Every structure is written in C-alpha cells, then in structure tokens.
Amino acid sequence: MIPLQPPRRLIDVEVDGEAVRVPEGSTVLDACRTAGKDIPTLCYGDTLTPKNACRVCVVEVEGSRTLAPACSRKAEAGMVVGTDTARARHSRKVVLELLASSTDLSTTPMAKEWMADYGADPARFGEEAATVAQPPKVDNDLYVRDYGKCILCYKCVDACGEQWQNSFAISVAGRGFDATISTEFDVALTDSACVYCGNCVEVCPTGALSFKTEFDMRAEGTWDESEQTTTTTICSYCGVGCNLTLHVQDNKIVKVTSPHDNPVTHGNLCIKGRFGYGYV
Amino acid sequence: MSYDRLTHPLVREDGVLRRASWDEALDAAARGFLRNIARHGPDSFAMLSCARSTNEMNYVGQKFTRVVVGTNNVDSCNRTCHAPSVAGLSAVFGSGGGTSSYQEVEDTDVIIMWGSAARNAHPIFFHHVLKAIHKGARMFAVDPRRTGTAQWADRWLGLNVGTDIPLAHAIAREIIHERLHNETFIRRATTGFEEFAEQVEPWTLSVAEQVTGVPKEAIRELAHAYARADRAQLCWTLGITEHHNATDNVRALINLALLTGHVGRYGSGLSPLRGQNNVQGGGDMGAIPNRLPGFQDILDPEIRQRFENAWQVPIQPRYGLNLTQMLEAMAEGELTTCYLIGENPVQSEADSLACVKRLSMLDHLVVQDIFLTKTAQMADVVLPASAAWCESEGTFTNSERRVQRVRKALDPPGEARDDIWIMCEIARRMGHDWHYDGAQEVWDELRRLSPAHTGMTYRRLEEHQGIQWPCPSEDAIEPPYLHGRLWKEDPGPRAPFAVLEHSPPVDLLDEEYPFRLTTGRRLDSYNTGVQSSGFASPLRRGETIELCPEDAAQLGLARGEEVRISSRRGTVVAPVHIDPALRPGLVFMTMHFPDEVDTNALTIEATCPIAGTAEFKAAAVRIEKVS
C-alpha cells in the first residue's frame, strides 16, 4: 500500500548554453540551480506554492514571447533558458528599482548585492517617488510588523492561511499601490485571530516581519549576525519533536527558526517552540 | 510568576536550604542514599527520571537505579499521561509505540482524533492533519469539548466525559452488524473476536446515544466512514488516558483498528500523541519499572542475562514500583529515599496535598532540576542541572518514534551541570567508578544493548534528520509504520481483542457536586507552567474556570467574576470565563498556573490499576459565588 512515487523521468534542459538534466516536474529555478546559476528570488519560498508576485527571478526562455518566472515555470524537455540575457537583466534591474524606490530594503538579505550587480538606481525616480513608508506596528511583545519594508509577496498570508497555519489572521487589503497586508479590519494583532506561531516571520523575505528580540536589538545597534551561532536541536515542550534552530548571541537565544526541509516541521513552529525559551 | 534558574547546589541545614559547593552537595546526596540502602535495603530507594531530558540521561538514570542502588524502582511522569497507551499497545502488539508516522496522516483517508485537542496541544502535528483535510481526508473529533480540533472536523462527537468505551463498543457493533469488519484480517491476525462481538452486542446505537450523549446518526457515520476507508488513522491524547480505566480505554480504540484492519499498513494506524518532549524515549530507555533499555521485559531471563553480563551486577527479576505505587510506599514508610530528576510531582500529581504529605515523610530527598520548584523546596539536597534541550548533547524520541539529535547551543548558568555528569559523580561516591566522555559514549553503550536502536549512530541520525525505531541495522531504514507482520500469511503472535466493561468516572456527580470538571492544556502554556511562564504571550489570561453560557446564566455568573470551585477533596477560587464550546454541566480548567490556582487540589487520585494514571479528566465539582 505504500504510495510509491511514480518514477520520475529525467528531462534535458539547456541553461546558459549548458546541458542539465532534472526530474520531470522540476521548475526552471531548480534547473538553473542544478546548473549552478544563482538567480535572485524574493517571493519564492521553498515551503510554499509560488505566487509569482515579485518577478525578480524572471529568465528568458527561447520561443517564449514574455520573460518567464523561474520559480514557478515548469522545466520542459528541450527548453533553452537564458538566465543572464540583456532582456532578463534589464527586467530584474527595473523590478529592483521599483521595489527599492518604494520600499525599505535595508534588511532584505542580498538586496544591496543584487542592486550593484544589475546596476539598479532607485533614486532615478526622484525625491517625489511614492513610497510605502510608515511607522512599524508594535502591538505585542513577540513580533513586529514593519510594513515600510513590505514588498507584498504574499508569503506571510500563505503561511498563515491554508498552506500551513490555517489561522487566516492576515490577508491583503486595499487595491493597487494602497494594497497592504492587514488583519481583519486592521485591528491590532492582539485583537486578531493570530496565534503567534511566527510562521509568517519565518518566510518573510525582507524583514518586514521580525521577532521583537531582533527588532529591539537592531534598534539599539546590538544585532550582529556575525557574532551569532546557529544550532539545531529539538523543542522541549510537547512530544511532536519539532526541530528548532537556535540563533545565539552572547550565550542568549535571540531568534528561533526551524529547518525548512525537516520532515516534522517543514519550517513551522507554534508559539511555545518559537518563543517559549525565556526560561533558560 | 516566572522562575529563576538554579545556579548553585543547595543543602538543607537546620531545616533550611543553604548554598553549598558541588562536593558538599554530592557527598550529602550520596551519603543519604547509602544510609537508607544500608538500613532498609535497595528497595527503599526510588528514582523519578525526567521525561524532558535526553535518552542518554534516562539510560544513565535507570542504570544508576539498577546498578548503583540495585532496585527496579524507576519511573517518570509518563505515569501521569501516556503509560496506558504504552500498556495497551504493548499488551496487543508487543511494542508500546504509536504504529504510524506523521507523513502517513497526510496520506490517509479518514482521521479520528479521539480525546485530543491537538490543534492547540500539538499544533505542528495538526499541520499534518490539516494537509490531509485539504487533500480530502475526512476528520472526526471525539471530545466532550468542541475544541480547536473539533472546529476542523467533518463531525464532532461530543460525548459525555468517561463514556469512551460505550462509544467505541457501539461503533464496533455497528461495524459488525453491517458486516464491514475485515474478516480475513481478523481470522489471520487476531484472537478473541467471538467474545468481543458478544460483549459489544448490547451496545446498540440507541443505548450508546443514551449513555454517551452522541446522536446515533453521528456514531453510525463515524463507524461507516472508519470501516469503509482504505486507510484510516486513529489518534488519541490524554482524553483517553487520564481516566481511572485508561488502559481499557486504549484497548477499546485498539479493538476498532483490529476489527477493520486499520493497523500495520501504510496510512493505517494507531497514534497516541505524546505530551512531553521525551516521554517516549524515557520509556524506551528503560526508565520505567518493568522494562530494560530497548523496552525489553525485565521478567525475561535471557534479556536480564545480557544486561547482567554488560553491567556486571545482578538485576532483580521482578518489576519495581511505578510512580503511583511509589507514592503509596512513601505513605507506608517502605520507601524512604528518593532521587527526583526534573519532576515536579507536588504540582503535577492529582490530589496534590496528599503528595506533599508523602514526600515530607521521606528520610532523604534529592532533587535535580533547573528550577527551585515546589518539589525542590522540600528536598534535602538540590542539584542544579542544565536544560537538556539546549544545554546538552543527546537525543529525544518523538511521538512517531523518531530519534532526533539534541545539541548544545548555550552554556548553562552559574554552576549548573549536565545531568549525566551529576549522576556519575554520585555513582562514584557510592562505589561505582563511572565516567562517560559525553553523550555519544552513553548512546553507543545503549545501541549495543537495545536491538531497536542498534542501527542509529549519531552520524546516521544527523544524515536522515532522525530515524524511527526499530532500526536494528546500520545498513537499512525500516518502514515508517509498525506491525506489517500482521498482514503476512503467518503473522506471528496474534493481536488479541480485549473484552471490556464500561466503568463510569469514579468521582460521581450528585446534587452537591453537580458539575463535571475536565482539565487540559492551552496553546501558549504548558503543564505546571514552570517553563512557559517565562515569555510574554499575548494569548495568556491566567487560570479561569470555563463554563458554557447556559450554566453561567443559570448560576448568575458574569465573565471575570471570582467563584469558589469545590470538589470532595479541595477548594480553589478562580475567575469565570465563558466558552460556548462547552456543554451544560461540563466545566474546564488547566493546570498551568498552580501558584495562583492549584487545580490539582480538585482532581481525584483514582488511578488506572494497570498503568497507574490518575483520572485528571473527570472530577465532580460545585461552583459557588464568592460574595
């Protein structure tokens, strides 16, 4: 009765002139990574279904009219992919410029490197360019929502919703440029359906969502990732056996995450695993 | 309140605990044990080993008890939660572990969550259930309360507290009468079907409806869905096991799996969800009075011989005392010294006042913990330990039998030391020159003695992100489910059906005590609250007595109003919280805030005669306005 995965056929794809072989059903991003090509991603999450929101991972596929988002486009036999063509580079540059002109990307890992790499110049839209700048929402002791850093990638909504947590505490409200991630009727988190699992923070690509410990330490200038160690151990509460990665600075736990490829958690935790370490 | 970590040893002098050096404290601990053993023999000693600590610590703990002291009196808080699951499963299948894996839950067709508030108590397990629901699986929740789990169910069967056996019997009878039972499986792999069928015969749907309060249509629907499913999972938690007849409850559920063949196949199985990080491992390591490491029966002479050869001491050929019997033996004066590691029985046991009295009768009490708990405050010697999950190396075993690596991320505070180091130091002072170079050396010793763990080197555990037992070979990984043998032409030892009688809760409802009090956990808190009080949860609202709007209206109570709750054993005061998920006559409290409200002053110490678990889930109480 074991549901054996049907054996997956391998298909041949060409990435930047190099032949790679990936299992059928892989994405173009998988194929690119197999070929050792590093493509920027923001809204892509390794535990989530692609939403195609940010367009920063676009690549050129021969014969395709438009650029293809690598994170969701399935690889096909004989596909010829260009990750670094002029058209793909130009598109990524503009996407980064638009995002960086309107959003604070200062805590987005790799953002600075990508901007330099693609020659993105967000300042070219001028001082008057519209932004989503706003003060951070600090309405509880566990995490902070700093929507001035939000690129509307939907990952938090998906993690809170039916893909993982099924709490449905947050969704997208508003239209167009005024769209935001919001609780129901924009109430404080403490009056929402939030259960403080932190699974939204786990997937946030820009630091718009962060743990209060990290937010406070950044504010006082003591947050220093180069001084942090990470150790994966097992949660001390119930018997499910969730894997916790403890981020430790100065012999203190400053953040708790979970490995995304773990068969028990798939990167998710509950309030106790994520925040219940205060007693050590 | 939040607790401060223990940072140095304490010894009692002139009635008060004072700071001591490690040498002084270890000497005092060893001296007291030796004195009692010399005076009253090894059976005057008992160890409560820690279900929160590593497998390695539990292995050394039970070895300390059996080798250094020479008794089998070792147990853990397993007793207050899932000992009946272990007893029930091992009586039927010869092994006490849950039979399935989390991934199988995602791939099943029907899930029954029986007495399990997993949505709140085991949230990440429930993620796997939710995956299954989104894929189209049907879920039934059987629980007196309409819990967060029930809110995701296709059907909620809100049974009266303590009527699990009548409900299971009615389900079985319906399955048999509709000829939905798996005759081939029953004939080949089980025994006792005829007697079982006869026993459940009186439990028609109508009779069951009267006793359980569950509409007969709902019982019928569950019976048909479970029996007709290609694959089905039956999961339970403390709603089944915290009863005076808990092992019978577990057997009643196992009967259903035997009847339908929902065990021993991928996707079909029985899953008790364990309540503490390593309560599974503690038992597997032999930190229980009737089993040696690897869950091997102490009464088997061959197995004993193997351990006697390895440890070079004789092992008593009889079972030791379990936690419940230990407490009785303290009252009788037969047990005079106790080594408690990371346990807080003063606040976690049913009828807590009786527990305090018994511990105070001991001649010598040593407590090893990370906090100065209520129990530690009664000790003669207090030894500050490291927190296993983040300050030591080792392994834990989870509810799906997966052994996973625990790693040290922090240095323990002050002079706190690793559990294994502490035990070795005491052993040395008692004439056994023990030394382990780290947890891995302990683990490798265990692997040599326990066939179920032999193939699990630390390297492989790392490589596979944990391995499920059994794992007898370093070259293979076994299937994720247990008891595949039941589907073989020759299934080996047959699985027996249990013939069971309904036995209602011991604490009867009457005019004086008209409400049924049941206890449980909340999402953001944990057990006696010692651990979980240390973070600022926005969800926390302290202890309350939760009751339904109808009862609140009848008693004229408003939300937040303080009321006096009394049982035949004690009285506490708590504010009212109104919860429409409860039914008239049913009230709910947690045990998370014992320093403010000692819920276990109300609960009854009526225990399961087989497994020794107390009936935390069913007390009779009265509720009165304070003013």
TrEMBL record, chain A:
Residues 9-87 form the 2Fe-2S ferredoxin-type domain. One of its GO terms (molecular function) is metal ion binding. It comes from the Bacteria. Keywords: 4Fe-4S, Iron, Iron-sulfur, Metal-binding, Repeat. Residues 228-280 form the 4Fe-4S Mo/W bis-MGD-type domain. SMART domains: Molybdop_Fe4S4 (SM00926). Pfam families: Fer2_4, Fer4_7, Molybdop_Fe4S4. SUPFAM superfamilies: 2Fe-2S ferredoxin-like, 4Fe-4S ferredoxins, Formate dehydrogenase/DMSO reductase, domains 1-3. Residues 185-214 form the 4Fe-4S ferredoxin-type domain. InterPro entries: 2Fe-2S_ferredoxin-like_sf, 2Fe-2S_ferredoxin-type, 4Fe4S_Fe-S-bd, 4Fe4S_Fe_S_CS, Mopterin_OxRdtase_4Fe-4S_dom, MopterinOxRdtase_cofactor_BS, PSI_iron-sulfur_center. PANTHER family: HYDROGENASE SUBUNIT (PTHR24960:SF84), PHOTOSYSTEM I IRON-SULFUR CENTER-RELATED (PTHR24960). This is Putative molibdopterin-dependent oxidoreductase YjgC.
TrEMBL record, chain B:
GO terms for biological process: respiratory electron transport chain. Coiled coil: none annotated. Keywords: Iron, Iron-sulfur, Metal-binding, Oxidoreductase. The keyword Iron-sulfur applies. Its EC number is 1.17.1.9. GO terms for cellular component: membrane. Residues 515-619 form the Molybdopterin dinucleotide-binding domain. PANTHER family: NADH-QUINONE OXIDOREDUCTASE SUBUNIT G (PTHR43105:SF10), RESPIRATORY NITRATE REDUCTASE (PTHR43105). This is Formate dehydrogenase major subunit. It comes from Nonomuraea dietziae. The lineage of its organism: Bacteria, Bacillati, Actinomycetota, Actinomycetes, Streptosporangiales.
